C-alpha cells in the first residue's frame, strides 16, 4: 500500500476514528495535500504552494524535496518574473513521466484497458474479447492477459493499476459477487498485484465512473451516477465523498423491478428489473424485437427511459440531489431515452424543491470507467481526489 494511503487503513473517507493522530499521519496528510494542490492548480513555486496549502515555507520545501526524491514531483524551470527579487522555481507533478494502467471490465463484448499518463491522455489501448459462456477462470485469465499486454507497453514508471469491475467489491479488492462475469469471491486485486508487481486498486465500475466525474469532470459534490453496460449499477456521492454502504453494495439498483409488475424477463429470474429494461444487451434486444414486429424504436426508448426516471425519483427525492449522470452508450441513452427519463423523474418528485435536477450524459462517457481507474490510482498512491 502507498505511504500516502489513509493512516487508518481501510476506513471509508469521513468515517469516525477515535485513535490519536500521530506525527506520521500529519506528514502523510501534508504530502497528499501538496500533490493534490499541484494536480488541480498546476505548476507553481514553492512559495506559492505554501500560500495555497497554508503550510509554512520550510515545511513545504521539505515536502517538495521528498516528493522530488520519490519521483512524483519535478522542477519545471523558473517562473516568469513578476516583480523585484529572484523568480521562484516551478514544481509540478510529473504528469507525463508517470503512467497508470486502467481496466474496464463492464463492457458487453470485451474487457477494455488503457495505458494513461496523469493528464488522462490515453497512450495505448488494448481489448480482450469476452467469450460466450466463459467460465470464471477463463474470465480471470482474459483480464490478466489484458493487463500484461498493457504493462508491456508502458515505457515509464507505472504508478499503479486501477480496475473498474461489475459487482460488489470488498475493501480488499475481492469481487464478492459479479453475476455478469460469473465471479464470486475472486481476489482480483491480489491476482493482478502478484502477476504485475504493481499496486492495484479494484472498485465497482459505477463507483469508478463516479470518481472520474467528480475529480476530472463537471460534477456537483452531490450526485448519483447510473452506469449502463452489460449490466446496470449506480454510485452515490455526497459532499464529494463516495458512499459505498456497510456491505459495499450501495447503488445496486439493477435488479430492482420498476413499475407495476410485468416487463421483460431478467436474468435474475424476476420480471421488469431495471437491468431488463435498460442494460445494453436488453435495450438492444428490445429495439431489435420492435423492428422485427413493426414497432417503434421511439416507443421502446421512451418506455425504457421512463422506467429509469421512475427508479431515480425516490433516490433524488430522498437525498435532494440535482445532478444525475447517465454513463453508457450515447447512441442508446441520448435523445428520446434521456428526454423520457427526465420527464418521468420530474413528474414523480415534488417539483418545487427539485426544479434544478438534471439527468445528463458525461463528456467522456465511453472512457469514464477507464478515467475512474486513473483517479483510483491517483487517490491511493498520491492522495489526490
Protein model, in words:
- The longest helix is centred in the C-terminal third of the chain and has 23 residues, at 297-319.
- The protein is globular, with a radius of gyration of 22 Å.
- The protein is an alpha/beta fold.
- β5 and β6 (122-129) form a beta hairpin.
- It folds into three domains: 23-93, Winged helix-like DNA-binding domain superfamily/Winged helix DNA-binding domain (Arc Repressor Mutant, subunit A, Orthogonal Bundle), CATH 1.10.10; 98-210 and 368-382, ATPase, nucleotide binding domain (Nucleotidyltransferase, domain 5, 2-Layer Sandwich); 220-360, Nucleotidyltransferase, domain 5.
- Residues 6-19 have low confidence and may be disordered.
- It has helices spanning 23-41, 46-53, 57-70, 136-153, 188-196, 205-216, 274-278, 280-292, 297-319, 330-333, 336-347, 368-382, and strands at residues 44-45, 73-78, 89-93, 98-104, 110-117, 122-129, 157-165, 168-169, 175-177, 200-204, 223-228, 232-238, 241-243, 323-327, 358-360.
- The strands form four sheets. It has a five-stranded mixed β-sheet with strand order 6-5-4-7-10, sandwiched between helices. A five-stranded mixed β-sheet has the order 13-12-11-14-15, with helices on both faces. It has a three-stranded antiparallel β-sheet with strand order 1-3-2.
- Helix content is 39%, strand content 21%.
Amino acid at each position: 500500500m502507498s505511504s500516502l494511503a489513509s493512516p487508518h487503513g481501510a476506513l471509508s473517507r469521513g468515517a469516525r476514528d477515535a485513535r490519536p493522530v500521530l506525527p506520521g499521519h500529519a506528514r502523510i496528510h501534508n504530502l497528499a495535500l501538496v500533490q493534490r494542490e499541484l494536480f488541480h492548480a498546476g505548476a507553481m513555486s514553492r512559495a506559492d504552494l505554501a500560500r495555497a496549502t497554508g503550510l509554512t515555507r520550510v515545511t513545504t520545501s521539505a515536502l517538495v524535496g521528498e516528493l522530488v526524491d520519490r519521483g512524483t514531483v519535478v522542477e519545471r524551470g523558473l517562473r516568469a518574473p513578476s516583480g523585484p527579487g529572484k523568480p521562484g522555481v516551478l514544481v509540478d507533478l510529473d504528469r507525463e513521466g508517470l503512467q497508470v494502467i486502467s481496466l474496464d471490465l463492464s463492457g458487453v463484448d470485451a474487457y477494455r484497458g488503457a495505458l494513461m499518463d496523469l493528464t488522462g491522455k490515453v497512450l495505448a489501448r488494448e481489448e480482450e474479447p469476452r467469450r460466450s459462456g466463459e467460465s470464471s477462470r477463463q474470465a480471470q485469465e482474459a483480464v490478466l492477459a489484458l493487463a500484461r499486454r498493457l504493462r508491456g507497453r508502458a515505457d515509464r514508471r507505472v504508478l499503479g493499476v486501477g480496475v473498474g469491475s461489475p459487482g460488489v467489491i470488498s475493501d480488499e479488492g475481492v469481487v464478492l459477487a459479479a453475476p455478469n462475469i460469473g465471479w464470486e469471491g475472486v481476489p482480483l486485486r491480489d491476482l493482478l498485484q502478484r502477476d504485475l508487481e504493481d499496486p492495484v486498486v479494484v472498485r465497482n465500475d459505477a463507483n469508478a465512473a463516479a470518481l472520474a466525474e467528480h475529480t476530472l469532470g463537471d460534477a456537483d459534490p452531490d450526485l448519483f451516477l447510473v452506469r449502463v453496460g452489460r449490466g446496470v449499477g449506480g454510485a452515490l456521492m455526497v459532499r464529494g465523498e463516495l458512499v459505498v454502504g456497510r456491505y459495499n453494495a450501495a447503488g445496486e439498483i439493477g435488479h430492482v423491478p420498476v413499475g407495476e409488475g410485468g416487463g421483460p424477463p431478467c436474468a435474475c429470474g424476476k420480471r421488469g428489473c431495471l437491468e431488463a429494461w435498460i442494460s445494453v444487451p436488453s435495450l438492444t434486444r428490445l429495439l431489435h424485437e420492435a423492428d422485427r414486429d413493426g414497432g417503434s424504436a421511439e416507443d421502446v426508448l421512451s418506455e425504457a427511459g421512463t422506467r429509469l426516471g421512475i427508479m431515480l425519483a425516490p433516490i433524488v427525492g430522498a437525498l435532494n440531489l440535482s445532478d444525475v449522470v447517465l454513463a453508457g452508450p450515447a447512441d442508446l441513452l441520448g435523445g428520446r431515452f434521456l428526454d423520457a427519463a427526465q420527464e418521468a423523474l420530474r413528474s414523480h418528485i415534488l417539483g418545487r424543491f427539485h426544479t434544478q435536477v438534471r439527468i445528463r450524459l458525461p463528456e467522456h462517457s465511453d472512457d469514464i470507467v477507464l478515467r475512474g481507474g486513473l483517479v483510483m490510482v491517483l487517490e491511493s498512491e498520491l492522495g489526490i481526489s
